What we know:
Blueprint: H1 2-5, H2 7-18, H3 23-41, E1 48-52, E2 59-60, E3 63-71, E4 77-84, E5 87-89, E6 93-97, E7 100-106, E8 113-123, E9 130-139, E10 146-148, E11 154-156, E12 160-167, E13 171-178, E14 181-190, E15 193-199, E16 208-217, E17 222-232, E18 238-242, H4 246-252, H5 255-270, E19 291-294, E20 299-302, E21 307-309, E22 313-316, E23 322-324, E24 329-337, E25 341-349, E26 352-362, E27 369-370, E28 375-379, E29 389-396, E30 399-401, H6 403-408
Parallel strand pairs: 2-9, 11-17, 18-20
Antiparallel strand pairs: 1-3, 3-7, 4-5, 4-8, 6-7, 8-9, 10-12, 12-15, 13-14, 13-16, 14-15, 16-17, 19-22, 20-21, 22-29, 23-28, 24-25, 24-27, 25-26, 26-28, 26-29, 29-30
Amino acid sequence: MKHEENRPWTFVQSIAKQQRWWVVPIGIGIVGVGFFTVSNLLDLTPPNLEIIGIEKGSTYRGRITLKVSVGDANSGVASLDFMLDDSPQPLAHDQVEAGNISWTLDTTSLSDGSHVVSVVAADTSIFRNKTQQSFEFRVDNSPPQIDVSPESLRAGQGRTLAIFIRVNEPAAQVECNLFGWDFTCYPLGSDTYFRGLIGIGVTHPAKTYPLTLRVVDLVGNTAEEVFQLEVKRTMFQRGGYIALPPAQRKNMMNKAKNRSDNIKRGKAYTRSTKVGMQLWNGTFIEPAVGRLTSSFGKYREYNTGVRRHHLGIDIANSVGTPIYAGNGGIVTLAGRLHLYGKSVVINHGQGVSSSYNHLSKIHVVAEEHVEKGQLIGLMGATGQVTGSHLHWGMVVNGVAVNPREWTERDFSAP
């Protein structure tokens, strides 16, 4: 009877002895799971956290989208928290995929100025290892404020209008629109102080015009303001009769050659040099010694029947008189023209150019950088002339202006 009672246990023991190989893998598995669990719980490594879309110290407007990548290969990620200026933010993310989060911060609800956004990731270990990244940034949702020098709102026919603009914050772009044309204003020593130069034509009607200024700050906020510009009448000399010999009369009336001259000169005047840099320094010098024979803007008549303003200054002297560069710049034309003879055009940057015409010899070449006072040629009587002289001209953004104004005024400040 006792033997019968022990049969089940004996049977089990016998089976266990026969199948003992099961015990080893099961035991290893149990130990492995236990070790894995303990090692995860005792993990000392914080999660990996990567954030793109925001940079420390940068300025933003509108919406900022932060791309957050978080992961922990050991114990896993337990939580991900967003803080704005120490205030918890709901995880109102747009997309969550395998540890990648796209979170949008609307800065229009914040005041302009400094703010701090922080992202904190914690793992599932008993130590709750954390990784935190914080970014101090600035918010700017306000358009810049524009201040214009009073003298920027007055101009005379045949003169250079200098528009001096101050803004209350760094600007990326400043433009003005006058007479239906857009002009770039360039920084003058800082990114909050700008100057635009515009030539006023000798025949431009004297009246009041709208001057529109448009300023874009570094993050894209735009301000646009309209001012009233007064163009005043300039009393130019009138009189003078120029009698050209038959050959020169014929040359003057050759429209095809005149058009070719104007195209070459136009390209030289408007060619961009050094990406908008100012290449001149201070006031200009008069390029030659001699007698003034025709002032700028003088209204003259030719024996061809043509009546027009003289768009330069004529300085007469003997052939071979030295001609000097009025200021620093890059030579954009050095060659012979139909009416202007041997000519040099110097581009001084920011739309300002000077020309030297009717030379007997040219001492510079195209693309050469010249300094103020450098010898560029010799006076002569080439082209359409009645005697040896220099026709000296200035062009500002495509419009001829009085060169003498540039010898009397430094356009660096109001």
